[in-house]
Specification:
Number of strands: 10
CATH architecture of one domain: 3-Layer(aba) Sandwich
Structural class: alpha/beta
Radius of gyration: 18 Å
Largest sheet: 6 strands, mixed
CATH class of one domain: Alpha Beta
CATH topology of one domain: Rossmann fold
Strand order of the largest sheet: 6-7-8-3-9-10
CATH superfamily of one domain: P-loop containing nucleotide triphosphate hydrolases
Oligomer: single chain
Amino acid sequence: MENEFFEKAPDIEDIAVLSEITDGRFLILATNLIKDYEIGDFIVRAVDDLSLKIEKTSFIIIKGPSGAGKTTLLNLIGGLDLPNMGTIYSHGVKITNLQEESLATFRLINTGFIFQNYNLISTLTAEENIMFPMKLAGMSLKEQRERALNLLNQVGLGDRREHLPFQLSAGEQQRVAIARALANDPPFIIADEPTANLDKKTSLFIRDLFSDMKQEGKTIIIATHDDYLIELANRVITFEDGKISNDQVVNSQAKN
């Protein structure tokens, strides 16, 4: 598996991006991405020849209409899906070259995912859901429990550790999902509409959690229309019909 990360020589078309990788500025370098889906007899192009660079410690918002391809783009950048064409470098690794086993290991260590529908494991308690990615990463049981409890306290759910997902409110489930995303302390956080199903009070609490992540220097990319989250961003990308229609640097103090 390790050979996939280190032994493959760069393709000729990759040489142009090597200097950008080695200077350490960019966490993500995506070039000429195309992603198509077959729906019956039709082919839908969800991402259309898109190139994107994401600097380390950026806080990026992606917004656009439903069906624009935002979720597909997040899945590609995070390595949950692969493009039909194009290349993605993440943390200096060409993830579009990795086999699924290596890609799964890469995601486990480097990226935390937060989904709109939480995606908690229904048969595991809040604590066990958070421990699960740590177990996969090989952390000791003692370390798993200590870190899971610390994360539950951080998201205000220390007293809900033994509850199953169905015993938690929507906001509590999302907070558990955020704690799970932070379980292995990844440098990169990807969130897809994390406050879409939540009330204002819970949305503000989630906003504060993302603010803490930003202060810790994590790179964050969120698909959302939530104004509270947009206030934290230093870059807002508008996505329509599989393409970037606007890419704006905002709030120059956002990193400070």
